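2024-03-11 09:14:02 INFO worker-7 job=invfold-0412 stage=load source=structure_tokens
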């Protein structure tokens, strides 16, 4: 059981509910409420408003939450520095990723990091780019890897690696017989697209508009995995990251078609809150991402994909 009111308060705010907090902290709902009330009595002000359907912070609560996060971070950093005396990296990380990265790259990144730093607890979250960006902006995530453009002044953005976007079509599709296509070949086709808020969807929409392509019909799916399966099933054509179809291309379950005069690439980015004080675990995790000799397996996979 955790009886740190500060941790309880932060957890309640981030879950916007008393119930998930109670389960995570092994506290009963009444116990959580009592700890929040104790904080409010000590401060002489209301921190949360529970009059509406959703828990909302008061103005005082917003101020207290901001400083509570800093206090907890400093506590964690103090513990880590003490444990550094024995040269052991500890702590906890909340790492997010948009779907393509989260499903095909993040597992390798986490596995390599965990092998070297087994004492660090890592929690991952995977969602579309917009959702991950918001989770970083609200400090729910310490760090994240995304494939879409990030244009928020409160977020620090660092390019991580290049990703190749390719056109994939069903094996039985008329385009599958062509070694190379032009934008004219792509007119009046059925397209398989990701949902709004996805980095891949934003990339596809931008290209379709720039090339002046008339789209006959679209089908929308909520993950790269679903888009891939829809193409294999013969539903339509799609622009996807080469990462998600490497195995299917090797197995000849679908076909990749070159687009004349175009090699489509985009960047994967590492993002985090700007001016955020980093814990030791976060510093080491970030260093591994940008040190080629440390991040080996997933970088080798990426190079093979770009050359394949």
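2024-03-11 09:14:09 INFO worker-7 stage=emit residues=308
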């Amino acid at each position: 059981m955790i009886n740190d009111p500060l941790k309880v308060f932060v957890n309640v705010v981030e879950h916007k509910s008393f119930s998930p907090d109670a389960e995570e902290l092994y506290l009963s709902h009444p116990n959580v409420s009592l700890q929040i009330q104790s904080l409010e009595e000590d401060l002489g002000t209301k921190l949360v408003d529970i009059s509406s359907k959703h828990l909302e912070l008061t103005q005082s609560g917003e101020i207290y939450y901001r400083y509570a996060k800093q206090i907890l971070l400093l506590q964690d950093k103090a513990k880590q520095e003490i444990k550094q005396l024995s040269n052991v990296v500890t702590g906890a990380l909340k790492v997010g990723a948009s779907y393509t990265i989260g499903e095909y790259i993040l597992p390798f990144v986490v596995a390599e990091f965990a092998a070297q730093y087994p004492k660090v607890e890592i929690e991952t979250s995977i969602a579309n780019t917009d959702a991950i960006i918001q989770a970083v902006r609200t400090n729910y995530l310490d760090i994240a890897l995304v494939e879409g453009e990030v244009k928020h002044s409160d977020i620090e953005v660092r390019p991580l690696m290049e990703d190749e976007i390719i056109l994939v079509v069903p094996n039985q599709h008329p385009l599958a017989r062509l070694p190379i296509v032009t934008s004219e070949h792509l007119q009046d086709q059925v397209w398989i697209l990701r949902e709004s808020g996805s980095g891949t969807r934003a990339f596809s929409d931008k290209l379709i508009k720039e090339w002046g392509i008339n789209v006959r019909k679209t089908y929308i799916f909520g993950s790269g995995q679903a888009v891939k399966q829809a193409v294999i099933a013969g539903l339509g054509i799609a622009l996807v990251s080469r990462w998600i179809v490497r195995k299917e291309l090797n197995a000849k379950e679908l076909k990749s078609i070159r687009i004349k005069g175009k090699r489509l690439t985009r960047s994967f980015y590492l993002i985090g809150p700007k001016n955020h004080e980093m814990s030791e675990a976060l510093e080491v995790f970030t260093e591994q991402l940008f040190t080629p000799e440390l991040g080996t397996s997933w970088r080798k996979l990426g190079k093979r994909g770009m050359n394949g």
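2024-03-11 09:14:09 INFO worker-7 stage=report msg="The CA atoms of residues 64 and 296 lie 42 Å apart."
2024-03-11 09:14:10 INFO worker-7 job finished
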